[in-house]
Amino acid sequence: MIDTAYVQRMARYNRWQNENLYGVADRLSDDERRRERGAFFGSIQGTLSHLLWGDQAWMARFAGTPKPDGGIPTSAALHGDWDKLKRDRAEFDATIIGWADKLDPAWLAGDLKWYSFATGREMSKPKNMLVVHFFNHQTHHRGQVHCLLTQAGGKPHDTDLSLLVE
Q1: Total domains, the chain
Q2: How far apart are CA 127 and CA 107, in angstroms?
Q3: Could you say which DSSP state residue 57 is in?
Q4: Do residues 7 and 13 lie in contact, with contact meaning Cβ atoms separated by under 8 Å?
Q5: Nearest to 18 by CA among 63, 76, 65, 85
Q6: Does residue 166 lie within any of the structural domains?
Q7: CATH code of 86's domain
Q8: Does residue 144 lie within any of the structural domains?
Q9: Pick from 71, 159, 55, 50: which is nearest to 115 by CA?
Q10: Considering the entire predicted model, what is its pTM?
Q11: Beta strand residue intervals within 109-160, DSSP E
């Protein structure tokens, strides 16, 4: 399904796109970043907060990094300080890249078992599929943020994976 080169490429794509969106969002006022815009997680900042929370939750399962506080319902409100959110995002993107760069191909071939609070039960799925989900989740919510930023007058750069400089 996937290999370590895919994981490493997507980890770098994640960082590149986060730098893109955070750079545009940083030029907005705090009120504009926090404005309710009808997205699933409300605002630009709420969606970015949820996205960091989700990355932290999956990396806790994948690599044993600290589990984030709260759950999906509270994830949009976990990162209320914009400057801290930016720092935490950049640091966590480095964590994801570090994990990807050291990933053992044999790890991708196994299954992951975890308790899902979203479903209220134990889950078991192939790790390679869950890693694809991890990156797909990022892309999904960054797409929402891209739209919200555009609505707010921002101009994010291209998002095409083919344009990633490696």
Answers
A1: 1
A2: 7
A3: H
A4: no
A5: 85
A6: no
A7: 1.20.120.450
A8: yes
A9: 71
A10: 0.94
A11: 111-116, 121-126
